[in-house]
Amino acid sequence: MQMQDVKIVENEPMSAHTTFRIGGPARYYMIPENAGQVSKCMGFAMKMELPYVIVGKGSNVLFSDEGYPGVVIEVGRSMADIEVSEDGHIRAGAGAGLGALAAAAAKQSLSGLEFASGIPGTVGGAVVMNAGAYGGEIKDCIKSAKVLDKEGAVLELSRDEMELGYRSSVIQRKGYIVTEAVFQLHKGNKEQILGRMSELNAKRREKQPLDYPSAGSTFKRPEGYFAGKLIEDAGLRGFQVGDAQVSEKHCGFVINRGKATAADVIGLMEEVQKRVLETSGVRLEPEVKIIRG
């Protein structure tokens, strides 16, 4: 299959494009290089009467074992430019990695993105879900974002217009696609910024199961609780379904021990939800987006 200017692969295994290393083949996998090409990909999907889904680095998603019968559009490596201005603004393509973004800020002694340095996602995904860690969130430092609506029209949203909440945004609710974002940071001490990034990354290595494939935190944080603590209190540390396991290092993570299937992960998540509800009365909501065929 050919489409002018856009790289397209048929029957591409999603296990090669997700941090879980799980997922069957996508009917079409497209890699646009700019917002105009993203719009073309959307148009292709609509013309073929196929569903489409956006991925960046493939974190926070789980594709089914059967694969995806539509179009997967990668807003990632080909849309990863980062520009730093002298007034403390950083403009980043939606495919830029959060680690690269934080490093670019630190290089110019700009503070505000230290929390993001170890999050294994892209700017686009982070804006959609208002990603955060260690007391920081995207909403604390973003100024504006350019998005495509479902018709492919370009919109520019201010921070207030994005309606950023806990793992939510108007972008997510309306199905917009982020193409770039602008962040407003403030001058700081480079050594202190790098020191804080190093400290947070050391905490991640100490507390999170980074040696195994996962999609990051599996469940959202219930108000007033920590998901990992509820799962541990339900006696589920190390609990397995097939090769999917509740991490023994951090119960908030489900890991792939090597040969886990999407069915294994989903079965494990459902059992965790059931047991936590029984033991604590709290209903856990998935943070991982499950994409079924």
Please characterize this protein's 3D structure.
- With 293 residues, the chain is α+β, with helices and mostly antiparallel strands.
- It is built from eight helices and 19 strands.
- The protein has a five-stranded antiparallel β-sheet.
- The model has no long low-confidence stretch (mean pLDDT 95).
- The longest helix is centred in the C-terminal third of the chain and has 19 residues, at 262-280.
- 28% of the residues lie in helices and 27% in strands.
Keywords for this structure?
four-stranded mixed beta sheet; five-stranded antiparallel beta sheet; globular; alpha+beta; single chain; 8 helices; 293 residues
Order of helices and strands: EEHEEEEEHEHEEEEHHEEHEHEEEHE
End-to-end CA span: 21 Å
Q: What is the number of helical segments per DSSP (H or I, 4+ residues)?
A: 8
Overall mean confidence score, pLDDT: 95
What is the topological layout?
Layout lengths: L6 E7 L11 E7 L3 H13 L4 E4 L5 E3 L4 E7 L7 E3 L4 E5 L4 H10 L2 E2 L11 H7 L2 E2 L2 E2 L4 E7 L5 E5 H4 L7 H5 L2 E8 L1 E2 L2 H18 L6 E4 L9 H7 L6 E2 L2 E3 L6 E4 L5 H19 L8 E3 L2
Parallel strand pairs: 2-5, 3-5, 4-19
Antiparallel strand pairs: 1-2, 6-7, 7-13, 8-14, 9-10, 11-12, 11-13, 15-18, 16-17, 17-18
Summarize the structure.
It is built from 8 helices and 19 strands.
